[in-house]
Each structure stands twice: as structure tokens, then as C-alpha cells.
Amino acid sequence: MMKSRRRATSFDVAALAGVSQSAVSRAFSPQSSIAADTRARVLDAARKLDYVPNRIASSLTTRRTNIVAVIVGDMANPFYVQALHCIGRSLQAQGRQVLLFTLDRDASADDVMRRVLQYQVDGVVLTSARLSMRMTGRSLDRGVPIVLFNRYIPGHDAACVRCDNVHGGGLIASALLAAGGRRFAMITGDPGATTSQDRVRGFVTHLAQAGVAPEDIAEACGHSTYEGAAAAALALFDRPRRDWPDALFCINDIMALGAMDVLRARLGIAIPDALQVAGFDDIPQAAHLSYRLTTVAQPVDAMVAEALALLHLDGPARHIERAIDRALPGHLVVRATLRPPGG
Amino acid sequence: MMKSRRRATSFDVAALAGVSQSAVSRAFSPQSSIAADTRARVLDAARKLDYVPNRIASSLTTRRTNIVAVIVGDMANPFYVQALHCIGRSLQAQGRQVLLFTLDRDASADDVMRRVLQYQVDGVVLTSARLSMRMTGRSLDRGVPIVLFNRYIPGHDAACVRCDNVHGGGLIASALLAAGGRRFAMITGDPGATTSQDRVRGFVTHLAQAGVAPEDIAEACGHSTYEGAAAAALALFDRPRRDWPDALFCINDIMALGAMDVLRARLGIAIPDALQVAGFDDIPQAAHLSYRLTTVAQPVDAMVAEALALLHLDGPARHIERAIDRALPGHLVVRATLRPPGG
DNA sequence: GTGAAAGCGCTAACAT
DNA sequence: ATGTTAGCGCTTTCAC
User: Fold this and answer.
1) Which chain B residues contact residue A25 at CB under 8 A?
2) How far is it, in rounded angstroms, from Cα A221 to Cα A196?
3) Which residue of A160, A287, B46, B79 has the smallest Cβ count within 10 Å?
4) A288 touching B, CB under 8 A?
């Protein structure tokens, strides 16, 4: 028993309820002035016809789709999955939805932005991807705000929300020093991203203050992936055993997992006894018993709240933020990959 | 230097190009009949005005949004993240996008479906969530196809794409038997989901054929989470050491990781020497060196392709599949959590 | 091949 | 509080 092929419209409901079509519209907008019993009659008729307001049609007139585009550059990194989940939840609680755009490694964010603009989204959240100034300008000029999440590009027009990476790098350095680290090494991420650069800078600067010369810090690029970090770790340990590092900072957790796994399985290195390890992000896996990774926790909830706030989704006064940079502090989470200080 | 606040419309482009508005529309639809030079003039004018076709407006007339809703029930399970990623990529390659709906644990899929319908999506993919028949009927009757991904509900109206879980459970049983398992245990997932039930059934049935009585198989529910599985594993081993299981099947990989972690860290159990472990799904982490988990790989790409095909997104003949059940075979991936047979 | 005109389903003034 | 009317930006007959 199939219902009528055509979906009911507000006109159908109006006819059945014996009111005008605009009354139907009002019945479905919480703050409009309509008599309680009129609304009741309308909602009743709507139920009978299985009527659901068409948000796509309404967005044509309101000029708001209540859709936010989220561009995710690296779904293989649980940190971004976590961020996406948090963004989705928050938005959904506001009656909005995420339109997801995935960006395969080295795909152009500009290309995907062209498509984003076709969907008339109310805002864009961009994670782990680079967007040209030209494209950013196009979006901002059309009134579509953009916020870069966990990515900061100096001089860039878009708003940006991130963790204070320099500070976080310093936290790791001081923890590793306090735990007795002597020969330092680090595995870096995307060399072009300030996220990686800043964490490295905070780390190196802090170590320098403690008398560790930057050139004494071994370094390898892990390209922000588990596999890349595994390769980088082996490269760092490709030297006489007495020169092996005893303190390793991985610019993010997913790389720390890759490094720990390969160093333990292939070289039999004991963590934290022979090597202390720290990461960054505090992804769920960092807490798992196989790793118990010391790391800097990014304040994801606060970052997401801030990012969405900067989009100014509420109110009719669509203000577009430009060149804003919000760096929120992370905090050290000490787990078992560091020896207890003075232990 | 800010451009005009108002976004250019096809009328603006038409005026600049000296053609009618419908010509502009045609210039942007690949298959419409329009002279090459007219199209060129239009595209040129469009570029000058930074015009982008409004897909929301066009979907009003075409009755297709080119948006597919994906409802994700468990973002903490990497398998679903993988599926989401794959769906997003495939859809994007077809010029479509994913509208993401997240479902917090125990939230009602019916509630979220009500919102889905407002967005006039062309189809719905539902992962790890239960949808009432009533709501399913409403959606199908309105011409919005639904496919359940990795979930099968007997007698349900929606189409369903899944792995052959009974077969997969059998593969694990036979691998565990061949590797010398004697005292079997399993950690189950959501007790109400056929996904878990079928894997259990395949496993138990196969063992029974080899002479292992079902009542000799220890069982605990891990609720499909890492933490739940850790607790379940401890419960299974809360008995005299000589009665400890030597072969453990976890209904999915994420639970296998939780079980392995806690059994190794808390009870010092050696895997695979003292205990052989197998999972299901083949999530990326299963291959990591800390686990090297033997598991059944779900054919995610094929499943996604099949799911999208059942949505019949192409062509004007919007056919709605009902009560379809497609079970694709998974395959065993042998890693280090099983002892080599005859070794 | 091209233009004119009629909607798609809704919201938002504007009257009443 | 309610109805009338004019769009929102586009696609699609239908003439020419």
C-alpha cells in the first residue's frame, strides 16, 4: 500500500487544515505569531499527510541552508575524526548539519572549495589542508566564512583556531628533560605546515634554554602518518647503538604509535626504559594499554566551540571574521612512556 | 577591496554575456544543446562575475539534491570511519556529497531520520543503527531509498548490504581450530544486532561440527567497544588459570584490541603462545605491529559500491529497492595472533 | 540553438 | 493572528 508518489507540500496541508499556506509555514517556525489552536490544526493535518517542511526550499528564501561544510584532509588520523565527530555533534545540537568533503592526500583544497560554494553552505571548517588566498577571498567575499581548524597560515585571510603548538612543544621538552632525557630526537610532520613547525620550534627552543644545542637533536620527517613515522623511526636509529636517542618527540600521536610499534617490534627497544616517547594530540589510542603515551591533549571541545563561534552562524548580522588567530592552550597528559621523574 | 555583497545570479551573467538567463543555465549543464561560442561567452561572463551555479536552487526544480545522508552510529569504531571515508570518496567522484548525521549511542535513529527527510536527500546510508519499520516506510514511500550498511534486520523493508557474517565466523573458527585451539571463548558485540549474532552463529556452528559443544564456549559481551571488550576479557579470565581459554574470538577488531591490551598488560598473557586471538573487520589498526591481528577482512570497497548502486542515484527512473539483502564474502587475513598451523 | 514564461516549495513583508 | 503577494535562483517546456 504505497502512499501518493508526490510529497505533500505546505499547500496540501493548508487545504486540509483549512488555513492559508503561510499559516502552515508559521506553524513550523517556533517564534512566529500564531494561535495555539491554529498551529495544532496545522500540525495535525501535517501528520495526516506525512508532511515534512522542505529545508532546501526554505533556504532559498532565508538565504541560510543551516549546512556547514567540513573539509577533512586526513581521515586516517584519529584526531581529525574526533574533531569531525565533535563538530557534527555540536552542529546537530543547533539544528544544523555537516556537509562532508574529503580531500585525498595532495588533492587541491581549491578544487573542493569550488564545489563547496555551489552548495550555499553557511560556513566552512577546513582541517589539515591548505587553501589559496585567492579561493579564500572568493569565499569570504561571497559571505561564506571559513575557519581553519588546527592549521595556521601566517598572513592568511581566514580565521584560524588551533592549539598553542609552540607552548605544547615546550611542555613536551620540559617533561622529557625532567624524565632524564639526554639524547633527543624528533619525528616531524608535514614540513610545510605551521602545526608541525610550531611544535618543533617550541620543543627546540625549550631544549636550547636547557643547554641542548639544536644541532644535537636528531630529526626525521614522518609525514604525519603511522607508516611514515615507522620509517622515520628506523632512520633515526640507523646508527651505532651507543648513539641511539633516549628521548623521542613525535609531532603527533599517530606517528608516535608508528614509531613505538616499529622500534619495539624490530629493534626490541624498551619504552620507557631505553627510550622515552611523547606525542601530541591525545587521540583515543594514546590511552590504550599498548601505548600509554605521554602527550599534549588538544582542547578539542573548546576548539570546536571557538571555531563554530567564529562562523557567526546565529543572528542575521552575518559578520565575517578575517585573519583571526586563536591559539588555545593544550595540557600535558603524563602516561607510561616517560620514566617517573626522580624514579 | 570587497566585491559586491550580493552573489551574482544567472541573470547577472546573462546580462553581461548578452544572452538570456536560460542560456546561462544551459551553459552549465553538460548535455544541453547550446552553441559552443555561446557557452564560451557565458562562461567568460561567469568568471568575471565570480558566478557559481546555486545547486540548492537548482535542486528545487530538478528534485534532486545530489546529497546522500550518511548516518553514523559509532564513530569510535574505525571500521565505520573507514566506511564513511569510502562512501564520501565514491560519492564525491560522482559529483555528489555526504550530509553527515551522527548518532550518539542509544540515540534514536528515527529522530535523526525525521531531520534527514527535511533535507530532501537523494538517499540514505545507515550504519550501525536500528531504524523502525514505520520510519523506514515513511522514507521509502516518499521516494527516499535507504540502505543499511553492515546491518541486517530480518523482514525489514530497507535494502541491506553486509559482509557474510556467518561465513566469516566460520572462517575464524576453522583458523582457530587449525592453529590448535582447545578451550574457546568469544566476546560478543551488541546483543540485539544480527551482525554480532551471525558471526557468533557461524563460529559456534563450525566449532560444533568439529566436536566442540556450544556450552563449552565461554562468552562475554563487549558491547562493541574497546573498553567494553577489556572488561569482558577480564571476566572471561576470572577463573583458575588451568581453565583459561586458549582461543578467543572477538566479534570485531576494536574489541580484539581492547581484549589483547588488557590481557597482556594486566594478566601478562602471551599472544599467541598462551592465547590465540582473532577479530573481524580488518580495521587499519589490526595490521599495526602491536597487534598483528588475525581477522576477517570486510570487502569495504565492494560493499560501498553495492550500497550506492542500490540507491539508484542515476537516471530519472528512481527505483526504490525493498527488502533486499546482499551479503558479500569476507576473507581471512592471517597475522601473528595465531600460531602457524603445525608449527 | 535560443528566449519567454511558468513553476519548484517556501518565507517575508504587507495588508487586514 | 491571519491571508495575500512577491520573490529566492534555477530548470524546463514551449515557441520560434
Assistant:
1) none
2) 10
3) A287
4) yes
Beta carbons of A288 and B54 less than 8 Å apart? no
| DSSP H or E run through A333 | strand A331-333
Say what the pLDDT of residue B2 is: 46
Find and give the residue nearest to D9, measured CA to C1': B57
Is residue A316 predicted with pLDDT exceeding 80?
no
Q: Is residue A163's beta carbon less than 7 angstroms from any atom in nucleic acid strand D?
A: no
Provide the CB-side half-sphere exposure for A74 (13 A, CA).
20
**What's the longest Cα–Cα distance across chain B?**
88
Q: Rounded to two decimals, what is the model's pTM? A: 0.96
- Please give the Cα distance from B75 to B69 (Å, whole number): 15
Q: Report the C-alpha gap between A4 and A7 in whole angstroms.
A: 7
CB–CB contact B99 A97 (8 Å): yes
* pLDDT exceeds cutoff 60 at A2: no
Give the distance, in angstroms, between the CA of residue B58 and the centroid of all CA atoms in the same chain.
30
Domains contained in chain A, CATH given: 10-53 (no CATH), 64-162+300-328 (3.40.50.2300), 165-298 (3.40.50.2300)
Question: Of A56, A143, A265, which has the smallest distance from its Cβ to B289's Cβ?
Answer: A265
Please state, in angstroms and as integers, the Cα–Cα distance from residue B211 to each residue in A272, B172, B173, following that order: 46, 16, 12
User: Which among B59, B88, B265 has the least Cβ separation from residue A56?
Assistant: B59
pLDDT tens, residue by residue, B111-161: 999 999 999 999 999 998 889 999 999 999 999 999 999 999 888 999 999
Query: CB of A119 under 7 A from strand C?
Result: no
